[in-house]
Amino acid sequence: MSSYRKQVYRNRQRLFSNDLKALLYAFGDSPAPNHETIQTLEDVLTTYMIDLIVAANHSRLAHGRNRLKIDDVKFVLRKDPTKLARIHDLQKMDREISKAKKLFDEKAQKKE
Questions:
Q1: Domain assignment present for 44
Q2: How do residues 35-66 score in pLDDT, each as one tens digit?
Q3: CATH code at 56?
Q4: Which residue spans adopt a coiled-coil conformation according to this UniProt entry (predicted)?
Q5: Measured in whole angstroms, how far is the alpha carbon of residue 93 from the centre of its chain?
Q6: What domain range is 89 assigned to?
Q7: H helices within 1-112, ranges in order?
């Protein structure tokens, strides 16, 4: 992936702190992990996501599209079978949930 120049903001908003705390605890860390550990993990995660989206944006531009699509992200992750399989699983789950919601809505409308 492309190397994105990391910009450091001193008082930037931390978006994933609570989720990372829960993940660390789930993987065996203490219930109150070190604050610096959370910040470091969040920096790594944010940098990875930025690199991924920048690379997907390059794919979007190469294909001449105006909007970023999941196919662009899949293209970037094509050499990482684990992450690509996870994307496929999440897409399949999303389709199943959408079908279930439609069935539920149809049943609710028939009762009325």
A1: yes
A2: 999 999 999 999 999 999 999 999 999 999 99
A3: 1.10.20
A4: none
A5: 15
A6: 77-112
A7: 17-26, 35-62, 70-76, 81-111
